[in-house]
Amino acid sequence: MIKSCLREISLYHNLNYQQREVMMPFIINQSQCVGCGSCIGNCPNRAIIRKGAEVIITGMCSDCGICIRHCGLDAINTGKSRAVFDNRKQDRALKEKLLLTRNIVAMKFADKAPAGVPEEDGLNFWCHICGDIFEGHEAPIFFGAKNSVCGGSSALGLGTRSVNRDDVLAMIEVVTGDGGYFTTNDLFTKPRTLFPKFPKVYGGMVIASLARMKMPDIILMPVNGKQMCMLATAYAFETGEIITGNAGGGTCLATVTIPFLENRPVFSCGDHGGRMHMRLKDEESLACFPYRLVPGTVANLDRTVFAQDG
Hints:
By secondary structure, the chain is of the alpha+beta class. It contains 13 helices and eleven strands.
């Protein structure tokens, strides 16, 4: 029975792979390729892999074309399809395939508010805005350091607003010691040292539902254990890449930094304040994806072992 089941799954995977193999955004001419691996090492999506003696471009390709610039043999040609970045289509697909019941947050970094996007007009928490969107708000808002109640704006690469010294000391007293997040202030900033640094200070970020934002930088969604497993399996399906998790620091730091700066998805349980402001349920954690990895991951949701569940 087990062998029969594994054989059926293997046939299913091979059939789907063969059908998609000629429909990539870019295709490697195997007669021209010598397998040097330059394209593999320079693909920002890690979408190019070795399969036996061949180097192939998988469905995780996002049309960036960087691989072409690193192939001196001109062995990489345009394929017959394009990655689907239509935000409304991806929003619908994620909700339908994962059975998501809440909105998906989309974020895009910018130096100033784009035309037609209102700026947050007071103080707020980044995580609270995300929670509003999870619960149904969709319209875009521009959020910057001047709007951030806490130090989360610094963790998001937005810098920090001017504050009163006594107010900062009072905040530190609240979040450290018994009943806080860390025993001492020395530990309060340590998690930031464990993550990559932003190359610049951004003016802010546009935050909206995915259905309302074209080509965001990253997306964030509440998921349960099975939904996270489905996403991770789809992401790994063609390339073997895994999704790692972060916990122990702020929700903003744990979710946004690596997807934006390293183009890798992550998951996180968040922290006490983040979970409260986002209004997460006990069974929910957060999945954060670079948007350029979404089309390939969504397409693979129909191809993994979870698709066998019907």
